[in-house]
């Protein structure tokens, strides 16, 4: 591959490891056009752990396959380290992929699987042996070199797949739901492992998953996809605490999506006053009379029996459900606006529950935690 | 059948299942004997110390026919024809059939459905019809019948068997394995040589063995397209009115033993590869 490194004129910042510009992919099956990706813009930095998160069928795999070169975009451009790679076949792209099914070569030993890429590149024998040995050590498979893939457990196969890709020292590694086939326990162990390996080798990881916890715990940044488009792109904290759309709010964790009519403006915020003593402050530009939708995360809300004072948000309601969940208690509260609000209260001391089913309570939270959302 | 129903009642299970087992055992051996009897007779009469033209009654044991295996010149020529045609037809149909099987299993293309149907049609069409239509085809083209027309006919009818076995194997493979190979830097030929072919090899081998078996004892299609060339089955058919020499039995025995060895070899390879 001829590497023509050019300055990223668009942003003037550091060159992105992977960049997609207005990428569209439309499949044609049975005479029908199936839009899988409808216009994606992305810039993934060098060494970043970047996740593509979204529900099944939203176009994650298709996006990744366009980066790897297995599918060509219908429209738009794909850049790897600044050079346009549209039309460059996968064997000439300086990136490797870990497949959801692992796709290990069944007729080769673990060693042959891992050595495959280096041998293809004509790396000298002794260097192949050394690098494969080192890599097997990193993924903790030393001593299993001679095994066939089918003689390994799911987790071990997964690590062979990872080693087989990483040993080539690609500029970026693409992982398509690599933990999807593992059980919860192994999955969590492998998450930690993957993160450790990524820190050790320091290369860009693009990680596809539909598991929001996995994305939140592992990523530097996340792109939440839905229906072929990126709904929101940001750090796990941004995505979790400030979901930009209703979809993101619903997809990531538990979130309360509420709406109300703005009764007045106060500084840089809109104020909704559903009833006497009740007040919801939503930062934003909505003006009086507008209907705004906003989200509040359940753990940001307080439950009290008496009316809170101060300038915070306050809402009255009746407890409809109390579920004790160990580290926290889940309250469902029917508010005066008819919406049901979920609240998580940390069980800090062995004190009794704050409220019981049927109790009249006040909900309160800091206005910083109400976020107006788009459509 | 009974045994499986009784399986649900643990109390009476043991003796009944044994009965069923014994029955199955007997049945299995009955079938094996039935299948082997003609072959056993063929082998035995290769050791028959016959003096007349007819090798039909047991006269005593001898090994002399093994010593005089090639003393009937026409028969030897026919056997050599059969073997070389079988080998070349096997190789030809293995290569062509593998390519078709791969294409059918891996890609979607125009005419794919038609190709599939034609293949099964070629397998299920009556041999007499195929033989006759091939003959008229060769006559139309003005091609003289002989060794090469037999070869072409054999490749034609055995190719589908290879293609179908290869295709069904390809369909069980994860397509991302080939993609992984490409991703790791292998070009088209390297992917085929290092990854695809080793994975489908058992199917190629099974198809090729089938092709060999079909070719070596094909009679009907061959007889339509042979001209004056004789193969082993054709020679036997022609000679049997005057009585078959015991050399035929000996050659049949050797072909049978060769077949057994090939099948055993195939089983070993298949077990090692899977
Ligand atoms: N080869 C193809 N031909 C036709 N349609 C396709 C093809 N590949 C994908 N699609 C369609 O494109 C859409 C996106 O598919 P994609 O595989 O990218 O989803 P995904 O986000 O990876 O989903 P999952 O989480 O289930 O793997 C789907 O509607 C799918 O049916
Ligand atoms: Mg997918």
Description:
The complex is a heterodimer of chains A (375) and B (274). Chain A is an alpha+beta fold and 375 residues long. Chain A has 2 domains: 18-244, Rossmann fold (3-Layer(aba) Sandwich); 254-372, Beta Barrel (OB fold (Dihydrolipoamide Acetyltransferase, E2P)). Chain A is built from 8 helices and 21 strands. Chain A has helices spanning 60-68, 110-120, 125-138, 154-166, 184-201, 212-218, 236-241, 246-251, and strands spanning 18-29, 32-44, 49-53, 75-80, 83-84, 95-98, 172-176, 204-209, 221-226, 229-234, 256-261, 264-266, 269-272, 280-283, 291-296, 302-304, 313-324, 328-335, 340-346, 360-365, 371-372. Chain A has a 6-stranded mixed beta sheet with strand order 6-7-8-3-9-10, sandwiched between helices. Chain A has a 5-stranded antiparallel beta sheet with strand order 16-20-17-18-19, with no helix packed on it. Chain A has a 4-stranded antiparallel beta sheet with strand order 2-1-4-5, with helices on one face. In chain A, helix 3 (125-138) packs across helix 4 (154-166). Chain A is elongated, with a radius of gyration of 25 Å. The two termini of chain A are 43 Å apart. Mean pLDDT of chain A is 87; it is low at 1-12. Chain B has a single domain (73-273), classed as MetI-like fold. In chain B, helix 2 crosses helix 12 and helix 5 crosses helix 7 (147-172). Chain B is an all-alpha fold. Chains A and B meet through helix 2 of A and helix 8 and helix 9 of B. The complex binds adenosine-5'-triphosphate and magnesium ion.
């Amino acid at each position: 591959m001829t590497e023509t490194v050019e300055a990223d004129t668009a942003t003037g910042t550091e060159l992105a490891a992977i960049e997609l510009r207005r990428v569209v992919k439309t499949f044609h099956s049975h005479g029908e056009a199936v839009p899988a990706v409808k216009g994606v813009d992305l810039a993934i930095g060098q060494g970043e752990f970047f996740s593509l998160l979204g529900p099944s069928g939203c176009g994650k795999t298709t996006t990744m396959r366009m980066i790897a070169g297995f599918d060509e975009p219908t429209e738009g451009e794909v850049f790897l380290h600044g050079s346009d790679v549209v039309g460059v076949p996968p064997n000439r792209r300086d990136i490797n992929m870990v497949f959801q099914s692992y796709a290990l070569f069944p007729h080769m030993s673990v060693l042959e699987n891992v050595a495959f890429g280096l041998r293809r590149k004509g790396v000298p024998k002794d260097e192949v042996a050394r690098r494969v040995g080192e890599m097997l050590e990193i993924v903790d498979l030393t001593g299993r070199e001679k095994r066939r893939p089918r003689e390994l457990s799911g987790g071990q196969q997964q690590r062979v797949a990872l080693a087989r890709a990483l040993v080539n020292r690609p500029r970026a590694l693409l992982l398509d739901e690599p933990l999807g086939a593992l059980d919860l326990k192994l999955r969590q162990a492998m998450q930690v492992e993957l993160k450790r390996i990524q820190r050790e080798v320091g290369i860009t990881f693009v990680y596809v998953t539909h598991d929001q916890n996995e994305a939140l715990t592992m990523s530097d940044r996340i792109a939440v996809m839905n229906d072929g488009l990126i709904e929101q792109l940001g750090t796990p904290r941004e995505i979790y605490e400030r979901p930009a759309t209703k979809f993101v709010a619903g997809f990531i964790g538990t979130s309360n999506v509420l709406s109300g009519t703005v009764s007045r403006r106060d500084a840089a915020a809109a104020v909704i006053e559903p009833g006497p003593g009740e007040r919801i402050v939503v930062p934003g530009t909505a003006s009086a009379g507008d209907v705004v939708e906003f989200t509040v995360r359940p753990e940001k809300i307080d439950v009290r029996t008496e009316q809170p004072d101060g300038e915070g948000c306050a809402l009255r309601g009746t407890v409809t459900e109390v579920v004790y969940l160990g580290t926290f208690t889940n309250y469902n509260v029917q508010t005066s606006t008819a919406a049901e609000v979920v609240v998580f209260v940390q069980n800090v001391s062995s004190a009794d529950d704050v409220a019981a089913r049927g109790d009249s309570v006040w909900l309160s939270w800091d206005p910083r935690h109400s976020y107006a959302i788009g459509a | 059948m009974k045994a499986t129903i009784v399986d649900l009642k643990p109390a009476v299970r043991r003796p009944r299942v044994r009965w069923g087992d014994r029955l199955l055992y007997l049945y299995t051996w009955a079938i094996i004997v039935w299948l082997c009897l003609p072959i056993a007779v063929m082998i035995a009469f290769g050791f028959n110390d016959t003096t007349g033209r007819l090798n039909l009654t047991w006269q005593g044991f001898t090994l002399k026919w093994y010593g005089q295996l090639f003393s009937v010149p026409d028969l030897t020529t026919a056997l050599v024809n059969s073997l070389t045609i079988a080998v070349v037809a096997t190789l030809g149909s293995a290569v062509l059939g593998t390519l078709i099987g791969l294409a059918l299993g891996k890609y979607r293309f125009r005419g794919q459905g038609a190709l599939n149907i034609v293949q099964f049609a070629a397998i299920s069409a009556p041999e007499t019809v195929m033989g006759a239509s091939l003959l008229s085809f060769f006559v139309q083209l003005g091609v003289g019948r002989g060794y090469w027309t037999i070869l072409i006919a054999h490749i034609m009818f055995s190719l589908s068997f290879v293609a179908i076995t290869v295709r069904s194997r390809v369909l069980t493979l994860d397509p991302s394995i080939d993609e992984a190979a490409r991703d790791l830097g292998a070009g088209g030929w390297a992917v085929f040589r290092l990854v695809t072919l080793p994975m489908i090899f058992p199917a190629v081998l099974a198809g090729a063995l089938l092709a060999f078996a079909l070719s070596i004892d094909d009679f009907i299609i061959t007889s339509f397209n042979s001209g004056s060339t004789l193969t082993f089955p054709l020679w036997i058919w022609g000679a049997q009115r005057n009585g078959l020499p015991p050399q035929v039995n000996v050659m049949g025995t050797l072909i049978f033993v060769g077949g057994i060895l090939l099948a055993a070899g195939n089983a070993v390879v298949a077990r090692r590869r899977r």
